[in-house]
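Ticket opened by: R.M.
Priority: normal
Category: complex prediction / small molecule

The reporter submitted a protein together with 2-phosphoglycolic acid and asked that the result be attached to this ticket for the collaborator who will pick it up next week. Submitted input follows.
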Amino acid sequence: MRRLLFAANWKMHLGPEEARAYLKAFRSRYNRREDRDVWFFPPAVSIEAAAQATRERADLQVGVQDIYWEPKGAYTGAVSAPLALQAGARATLIGHSERRHVFGETDADTRRKVAAALAAGLVPILCVGETLVERDAGHTLTVVMRQLAAAIGGTEGTPLSRLVVAYEPVWAIGTGRNATPADASAVHREIRAWLASRLGGGAAQPRVLYGGSVNLKNCAELLAEPELDGVLVGGASLDPEGWAQLVQTSAP
Ligand code: PGA
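Result attached by the on-call engineer:
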């Protein structure tokens, strides 16, 4: 049975006090369910507060939105995987489209970050996805496979079953325009085939999430696709009541 993962990407919202209040409200509205996990990605300054607020709930985990690949040193403004771990993070987003397109992160950077996350014991959530121009030119799969290969190709022997992949078409992020369940599913199938060919069919396979304008209205139909193991959600995760409702979406 697939174990669903609902990941909340708070982006640059919710400081420590707000994170505590949010998680108190969320916990009172959502009781543990055996078939799913809920992970929160607060800004780095709120990780510790969020980790404390979820301490007694093993089904709720906290992650960091980005890491730098060096473990420590003179890198002003950066957060390393070991430092995020120390603050309470158990996972990290890597290569989110805003990191790639706003901050100029490259495919080569994502590779170093995946390796650093795995070395420190953080679960990497590798984000991949095409822009609208790339999609319209029919290059969706080329781009997604290039991003996968650049970040994790040739890493045989590393425990990639701990990896999570999030397919997030750039044109769907924060735009209110989500991929259709069938479109998302088709790309997920290719991602899975690519992963299986690298990992071998017998190995535990990484979970593959969909992200991009997921909300209360479209979540059920997206999760009805067996190819989707969960969702990575920005805007619709910022309100604790709405998010508590969303994470209780029943998937057939
Ligand atoms: P969105 O963001 O749900 O606001 O589209 C998703 C993401 O960026 O992970």
